[in-house]
């Protein structure tokens, strides 16, 4: 059964707050970031990586397809598949190497923008974050979802209710 949480983020400060909560609760796995251009996928990712402790710039991997990070020893890969022409390109760039990192002692966090362009090669999501920009009110509507309720999800849900109630 799909578990979902819906939020309205009125400004960038709220996006940063959400990223901080996500950073506290989701340390590894596959996260799909879904939304139209300008919906805030890269902004959320940037804030998430900074909340995890990344001190430098966070650039969009629109042309490189992936930007790797190691934060406190944790491997994190930010994928942006917007310019991907064919999912087979992921095989050519060695996506299996990133996925095989899952066999290591520290499981990676994969943040994947435009995951639908990488189907069927991209791994199944543990979490999905759908972002929608309401241009009239300049707010972002966020729907977080997971297929399986877990202790991580319950703790995330509780924290989000505390922070955004």
From TrEMBL:
Domain of life: Bacteria
Localisation per UniProt entry: Cytoplasm
GO biological process: tRNA threonylcarbamoyladenosine modification
InterPro entries in alphabetical order: P-loop_NTPase, T6A_TsaE
Keywords assigned: ATP-binding, Cytoplasm, Magnesium, Metal-binding, Nucleotide-binding, Transferase, tRNA processing
GO cellular component, one term: cytoplasm
Pfam families: TsaE
Membrane spanning residue stretches: none
A GO molecular-function annotation: transferase activity
Recorded family membership: Belongs to the TsaE family.
Listed name of the protein: tRNA threonylcarbamoyladenosine biosynthesis protein TsaE
Taxonomic source organism: Alkanindiges illinoisensis
């Amino acid at each position: 059964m799909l578990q979902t949480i819906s939020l309205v983020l009125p400004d960038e400060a709220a996006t940063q707050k959400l990223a901080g909560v996500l950073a506290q609760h989701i340390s590894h796995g596959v996260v799909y970031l879904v939304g139209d251009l300008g919906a805030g996928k890269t902004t959320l990712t940037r804030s998430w990586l900074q909340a995890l402790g990344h001190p430098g710039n966070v650039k969009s991997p629109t042309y490189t397809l992936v930007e790797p990070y190691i934060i406190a020893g944790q491997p994190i890969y930010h994928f942006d598949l917007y310019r991907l022409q064919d999912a087979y390109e992921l095989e050519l760039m060695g996506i299996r190497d990133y996925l095989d990192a899952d066999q290591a002692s520290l499981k990676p966090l994969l943040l994947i923008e435009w995951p639908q362009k990488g189907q069927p090669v991209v791994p199944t999501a543990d979490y999905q974050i759908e972002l929608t920009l309401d241009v009239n009110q300049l707010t972002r509507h966020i729907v977080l979802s997971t297929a399986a309720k877990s202790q991580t999800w319950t703790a995330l849900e509780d924290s989000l209710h505390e922070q955004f109630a």
